[in-house]
């Protein structure tokens, strides 16, 4: 068979069978409610809520790691001082 006589993959019977298959895969079936793999989503509200990196609690080790530094005692202490001094601004500079 030459290169010019090959059927494109998209046109093979195997692909058509796979596309037409509506059978559920048991490994992906859940009880129907939210769980760790299928969370419940909130309906949109009137105004969009802008979320920033400082909306969640940050430990000094988290800040040091987010800044690309190894979590050594010196870097963790520097991040702790930065969080105490600048608060949320320290996080916003790193994770906007």
Provide a descriptive summary of the structure in words.
With 96 residues, the protein is mainly alpha-helical. The chain has one domain. 38% of the residues lie in helices and 0% in strands. It contains four helices and no strands. Helix 2 crosses helix 3 and helix 3 crosses helix 4. The longest helix has 14 residues. It starts with 12 loop residues before the first helix and ends with a helix.
Number of helices: 4
Instruction: Say how many strands there are.
Output: 0
| Shape call | elongated
Strand-pairing-aware structural class: mainly alpha
Rounded average pLDDT? 79
In total, the number of domains comes to 1
Instruction: Give the radius of gyration.
Output: 25 Å
Termini separation (Å)? 56 Å
Largest sheet, if any?
A: none
Strand content: under 5%
Order of helices and strands: HHHH
What is the helix fraction of residues, given as a range? 25-40%
Low-confidence stretches: none
Region (Disordered): 26-75
Distinctive features:
96 residues, mainly alpha, 0% strand, elongated
Question: What's this entry about, in short?
Answer:
Helix content is 38%, strand content 0%. It is an all-alpha fold and 96 residues long. The protein has one domain.
Write the layout of secondary structure elements.
Elements: H1 13-20, H2 60-66, H3 73-86, H4 88-94
Region (Disordered): 26-75
């Amino acid at each position: 068979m030459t290169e010019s006589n090959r059927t494109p993959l998209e046109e093979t019977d195997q692909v058509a069978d796979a596309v037409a298959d509506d059978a559920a895969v048991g490994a992906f079936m859940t009880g129907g409610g939210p769980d760790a793999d299928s969370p419940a989503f909130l309906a949109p509200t009137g105004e969009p809520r802008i979320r920033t990196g400082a909306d969640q609690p940050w430990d000094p080790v988290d800040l040091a790691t987010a800044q690309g530094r190894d979590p050594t005692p010196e870097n963790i202490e520097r991040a702790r001082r930065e969080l105490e001094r600048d608060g949320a601004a320290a996080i916003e500079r790193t994770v906007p």
